[in-house]
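Regression test attached.
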Amino acid sequence: MNTRVILSIILISFGSIAAILPKQKTSSVQLDADDLLREIRLETNLVSTDELADLLINLDPGLLLIDVRDSLSYSKYHLPGAINIPLNQLLDEKWMPYIDQISKNNIFYSNGTTLSSEAWIVTRQLGYKNNYVLYGGLNSWFETIIQPNLPGAMATSEEINRFNKRKAASMYFTGSSGASDMNSAPALPPVPRKKKKRVAGGCS
Amino acid sequence: MNPYLAGILLGFVLLASFYLTGRGLGASGATRSVVIGAVTTITPEHAENSGYFSKYLGDNQMKTWLVLEIAGVIIGGFLSGAWAGRLKMRVEHSPGISKRKRIYMASLGGLLFGFGSQLGRGCTSGAALTGMSVMSLAGFVTMMAIFGTAFVLAYFFRKNWI
Amino acid sequence: MGPLVPLQNISNELNLLIAFVIGLGFGIALEQAGFSSSRKLAGMFYGYDTTVLKVFFTAAITAMLGLIFLNFTGLIDLDIVYVNEYYVYSAIIGGIIMGAGFIIGGFCPGTSFTAAAIGKIDAMWFILGSMIGIFIFGETFVFWKDLYMSGYKGAVKISDLLGIRDGYFALALILVATLMFWVAEMAEKKFKREDITKEI
């Protein structure tokens, strides 16, 4: 058997295997399970309600709140300036510019921490950065900021300070200046993340 | 070496190039870098004013990927030729034509190829070979144009070769 | 995961070194295939030597299959790998001119360097001619600019254009190439020119 025949057989075999292979959407920026677990355990993606209150009061320009509950819950009440991306629509094309970008910090929130954590895990695994989770969600928001618990008699000065801050925040959010922003949503989508660049090549 | 084997070897070099650097092979770009380097050295302003060359100006014309690659090609070719005992300074031509005519033909062919490679954005290595392996339409079309034209014109130049 | 240079932030110097080493491999493969001989290259168009076809298609198919398998095993990100951009008129007209250059000169830029490296003087003249050709193109660019820039279709892949999987196209190409190998061997027997093939 000469080379040509052997080669043809080899090539056709490999070619047939190749033809069966599915198209792989390899993304070099995706995280693998180890990295993802490590990040989850570090809890660097969590934002406390106090931190969020600070960001909102200071009108932090890099902040974008994303409500991942269904639209009915959103329309009944949502945090000031938040947009609504129900969890089941998270990966829709139209939301890509919001979740896959590098200019704003997105904070996912829901009633508790479950839905927002789920949103975070999905987007983080895809390699998207700048996404965070509001720890405790709206439930915690109400308990700590809107109606903070009075510190007991044995409270430390730190606890008293924190209570005062929260009380002030509560007034801010339920007072006149807070309420007017309640149902407005940001107009422009943020700058999308720079896409993977193709290498220059050919005879150039 | 058996042509099929050489083809597999070349294929692996090409694959290595893709895996390591994300780009394929090329040749005409290196020649262009040399031309631009020469023009820049002689008359820098002219290169800047030129609509075409100005696109490729950089700090060092010769420090490009393709120039380094062609340097490797030259040395690799030399080593392979030396090992196979094929080193010899000569003008290779068909017995039917003179050495002088062969040199004219080679120069004219080079001129056409140089011009064509710039217009065609690549040559057989860069556009056709590399292009085919990534399944680019441009590579395919360029390859068909090159080989198709050569086949069609072959009849008219047969005296030069056969 | 590959490609390494863009994804692992490899320095430019190392990238250039890799270019050199790849060039070495390229030059060795070309010379070993016998492409440092213009008569062997031109033989493709007269039937007495179809090495060009065999080497070219084998190489393209090997690399193509390699890319598909590397992509499947997650070792390479195909979105980053360079795909030639398609400018309709550039590709066709440039290709025609290059075809003429090929049959007249008997070389293409890559093989001309390999041939010059082993001492072929006609290859050296080819290189000189190509430099002049490039210079002429640059000088007269103003006439060609519109043609050069027109018909931009982007980095189109054939498999995307036809809407088929990469693997299917690879298999189709392999079958076509196998057919061509058979035809080539028959042509070599029919258009045999012992006097030339003995020399080159």
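Expected vs. actual: identical. Chain A has nine helices and five strands.
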